[in-house]
Amino acid sequence: MNVKEYTTEISARLALRSFFIYAFAASLIVNVILAFGLIVLDKKDRVVVLPAEITKSFWLDANGVSPEYLEQMGLFALQLALNNSPETFEHNQRKLLQYVSPERRGATEVFLTAQGRRMKSANASVHMLPEAVETRASTMQISVRGNVRQFIGDKLTSMQKKCWIVKFTYRNSRLWLETMQEADCKRPFEPMKPTGEI
Question: Which residue ranges run through the membrane (predicted)?
Fold first, then answer.
């Protein structure tokens, strides 16, 4: 091998090595800058979780939820609890229990199961038509006023104006249903009686 070829080969390999060293150094610098940027960045994330039917925009973040989200989830939970027939009750009960806080799940399941047995034995159906919603974001509550219609078979047996309070809690970036209570329509955030609690 001639010295000139040998020198050319060594120069080419040294140039290639230098290129990879500079590329690695540039990559390392970019990674350090990106890591620093991630550490310094504001970590406010908002996760959007959707109820079955959306009529308003809303937000969630690590510290809480928007009043619109409380309203949408409260209406969704009330629809599951108060729009039932013997055929739809079990499905709605399972769906509603997915949103109930773990501490309240057992008592809520017992209450709903007893309600479902009564509905099946009487062949009864219940339907609520919401008319007005009021939200108290500070206490994670909504109040819903509406007409509750009850049927036995296909006969309308009663239609009453009722109010409900739906209370939530927000833990670990998840909204949990705490209670649903029948309320006095004149004072929408005051429970009427403990027996109307879900």
Answer: 20-41
